[in-house]
Amino acid sequence: MKKISNTKFYFLNLLFLITPFIQFFQTNSVEVAFYLSDIIKIFVLVFFLYLLIFLLIKKKEIITAFSFLYFSLFQFAIFNLVFNQTISLIIIITFFLIFTKYLINNNLIINFFVIFLSINTLFFLMNLILNDDSNIEKFVNLNEDNNLEEKLISNPKNIYLIIPDEMIAIKHFENAYDLKLNNKYKNNFVKLGARYLDGTTSKAEETAINFINLLQLSEVEINNGYKDYHSLIKYYFNNPHKSRLLKFLYKNKYELKLVGNPFMDCDTFDESLCLKSRNKKFINFYVFNTFLSASPYSFLREHIKKFVKAKYAKKLSSRYKNLYYENDAIGKFLNSSIDLANLKKPHFFLIHHLSPHDPHFFNEDCSFRDKILDPNWKISDDYRDGYKSAYYCTLKKIINLIEYIEENDEDGIVIVQSDTGLDPNGPLSNYYPVLRNNNIEIFSLAKSNNNCQNEIPKNSTNIEIIEFMIKCNFGL
Q: In this structure, what are the phi and psi dihedrals at residue 368, rounded to the nearest 5 degrees?
């Protein structure tokens, strides 16, 4: 059988190389703007792996077989739309064996892949060119401008905005777990000069939309069909004059600091937002795992999880404890040793605490939950207990944070607003049907030294409360 030409050989292998990345861009477009540099790094690594194989292996058939296997593995997610994971993997292995045994030098088959993948690449490039999102503002309709961003203030104070992720209102927490806390925590907040706010809701269905609303101090209307929320967030951080909140802060000489988590942290946008400089890892493993999610990686990982937990418990414990630390934004802020009383500029601290959102790393006393290291542990079976533990821990951390601010910055404005309630289709809703309501109340409190928290209108949204606290405290 006639062998394929050198030109076709190189072109085919190039198509096999880039197609999984094209698929990644198409299925994860909402995060591409966030992590473009990390995606490029992964591509460079794969490219150099290809180059190394080309240099070490001289036989075209072996190189093409490797390329086909690499390409095929990233079709795993497509097969999963029709078949279960085991059958999908068997199909991929079967196709690979047939291709390498009988079709690797078949010009008809090779031409099919060249033409098909070329068309797919051209279609992707055309969409990239024609769907010009450079004018990203066209997708967003802002409510009537409140002109807050034009206001100058004469009495700047530090502002602490804490976002405990997926933290439902205390009353919902009590009902979900059949608890009677008898206003224990609410009374603690009152003693600290804070007011817990019943009736607060969030109109955001996910964290990214809540961030957009926060940056505009308004529940924005995003055009139907536009889902690239992360690009919009990055756009506002890169163009602060387009964000009502950022424009107000920078006009009044505020310094913004973001304390986040592995999924949305300061260096995602700009290292100047970080509390202190950090050593950035060459590879963002969240992006790497997302890239591999189209392959059997997650499926195989689940099958070896018991072995890994049993044989490498210490190593796995170290990895989970690192995530336990990274998700604890409140803890990272408290441990940062910032001299709040002697800051040269007024600060806006945005603290995105990834709890009680899963994974639930925290015991009720905020120690690490060793339970998740058990080889038989499953988040779906543990969700009810895990959320409860994480919720209690988050309450304790909020109290500790308010105490710390009260001691070190008595004039500081403290606002604690969850971004969303729980997923209405999530595991906990099976135990408590009211959680299926999209308008579920969220955890909400506010504190300042001039009684503004007691003037907040009833049943406000989280964004309305943030805007009110800024206006009231600065007489705007």
A: -75, 135
Q: Extract the tokens encoding 211.
A: 């961030």
Element (DSSP H or E) covering residue 92: helix 85-98
445 CB contacts (<8 Å, ≥6 apart)?
Answer: 189, 194, 195, 196, 197, 398, 414, 415, 416, 453
The CA-CA-CA angle for residues 255, 258, 260, to 5°, reads: 175
DSSP run (H or E) holding 284: none
How far is residue 187 CA from its own chain's centroid? 33
pLDDT at 370 over 80: yes
Identify whether the C-beta of residue 299 lies closer than 8 Å to the C-beta of residue 85.
Answer: yes
Domain extents in the chain = 6-130, 139-473
Which are the contacts of 27, defined by CB distance < 8 A and separation ≥ 6? 77, 294
3-state secondary structure of 94: helix
State pTM to two decimals. Answer: 0.77
Rounded CA separation 167/396 (Å): 13
pLDDT of residue 1: 47
Contact predicate 245/215, CB 8 Å: yes
Rounded mean pLDDT of 332-346? 90
Rounded-to-integer distance, Cα 48 and Cα 54, Å: 10
Instruction: Give the H/E segment covering residue 221.
Output: strand 221-222
* Backbone angles phi and psi of 264, in degrees to 5: -160, 90
Q: Strand 221-222 and strand 140-141: pairing?
A: antiparallel
Residue 20, preceding bond cis, omega within 30 degrees? Answer: no
What size, in residues, is the chain?
Answer: 476
Picking from 452, 472, 468, the residue whose alpha carbon sits closest to that of residue 460 is: 468
Question: 348 falls in which pLDDT band (50, 70, 90)?
Answer: very high
CATH number for the region 139-473 comes to: 3.40.720
With bands split at pLDDT 50, 70 and 90, how would you rate the model's confidence at 442?
A: very high
DSSP string for 28-70? -HHHHHHHHHHHHHHHHHHHHHHHHHHHH---HHHHHHHHHHH
CA–CA gap between residue 179 and residue 196 (Å, rounded): 18
Reported as a single tens digit per residue, the pLDDT across 50-90 is 888 888 887 888 889 999 999 999 999 889 888 888 999 99
What are 419's two structure tokens? 């971004």
* Furthest-apart CA atoms within the chain: distance in Å: 86
Strands 159-164 and 413-417 turn out to be parallel
pLDDT at residue 379, rounded to an integer: 76
Give 148 or 447, the one with higher predicted confidence: 447
Please answer whether residues 29 and 230 qualify as being in contact, where contact means their C-beta atoms are separated by less than 8 angstroms. no
Residue 398 — very low, low, confident or very high, per pLDDT cuts 50/70/90?
Answer: very high
**Which of helix, strand or coil describes residue 141?**
strand
Quickly count: other Cβ atoms within 10 Å of residue 428's Cβ.
Answer: 21
